[in-house]
Amino acid sequence: MCATVLNRFLILLIICFGNWCLADLKLEVNDACATQHYQGTCISTSKCSHISEFMDNLGLKSTDVMSCGYDIKEEVICCPPEKSLVRSANRPAEHACEKIESRLITHGIIYDSRAQRRYPYMAYIVYNVTGHICGGTVIHKNFILTAAHCLDLPEVMPTKVILGVSNLNRFEDEGIEVDVKNIHIYQNYSAFTKYDDIGLIELVEYDDFQGKVNPACLYTEPTELFNGTELTVTGWGSTEKDLHSTQLMMTKLMYIPLSQCNASYANYIDRRIPRGILDSQLCAYAPGRDICGGDSGGGVVIIDNDKYKVVGIVSASINCGANLPSLHTRVAKYLDYIEGIIWPNGYV
């Protein structure tokens, strides 16, 4: 019994003096600290009241929050600054956008050999098995923004992405293949619903894009888009003739406000959206136009200040071509999550 007590004493490393105890801290209270996801300050858990909201915003697990040790009564954790929850001005995504060159082409025919030049942010995902088609958006030289359902597939893994190509039949001549280094799936994503459908593909270091690739900006405005805002969606999805297109295709949809979108789905029962349409989703619609299989993961973009800005990620179309708005992940709701992976220290 004495040995057990001694072992516990050695493990906890607690020294008691009279009526109080001092735990052995890895870092001192108020020391600066940093993890791979954020920078912060070591403070008592009870004083870091915003940590749960911060973890939800970034899709972090409890194991992602660094422990600094223990004080007299409780654990001391690496607590992020509160301002990181509401930062809008001068956030990393905005700084990154300032560095992105405007490469808009606003004339000519959509479906020609210049399609990829029109949308130089488009990425085609290659898997270890055939039969899966998804796209993505280049938002950084080493990261592709895509849908979580394009990454969370049993025994199916993305191995490469093809950049700078419009016609998949000519990707060996036109495209740039880059290997996948890692995948990041939003922590709260579930394959059983269409919520939190967002993830990132991390690429191996690669810089020689031969002028064919240009990232899109992230849309950072917290305000709602105007009803009817024109949205551009691109992808290699199915067409009337084929299961999927080998040519990069484009369609224009209109933004549908959340209340109107929920009204459209009022009489539609789908277990994938048990809570209705949430503000973390974005709806789009146009008569006779829709997204289809193979468009998943691609960017939903607007043109703002002569730059493409990603407002959404193609998530789901209920019965392709049906008279219902398509569902997309609203990027602005996941900025902390994206920035925490791409720019964990806040530096661009």
Automatic annotation (TrEMBL):
Record-linked SMART domains: CLIP (SM00680), Tryp_SPc (SM00020)
UniProt keyword list: Disulfide bond, Hydrolase, Protease, Serine protease, Signal
Domain of life: Eukaryota
Signal peptide: 1-23
InterPro entries named in the record: CLIP, Peptidase_S1, Peptidase_S1_PA, Peptidase_S1_PA_chymotrypsin, Peptidase_S1A, Trypsin_dom, TRYPSIN_HIS
CDD domains noted in UniProt: Tryp_SPc
Molecular function terms, GO-annotated: serine-type endopeptidase activity
Protein family membership: Belongs to the peptidase S1 family.
Name the record gives this protein: Serine protease persephone
Gene that produces this protein: psh_28
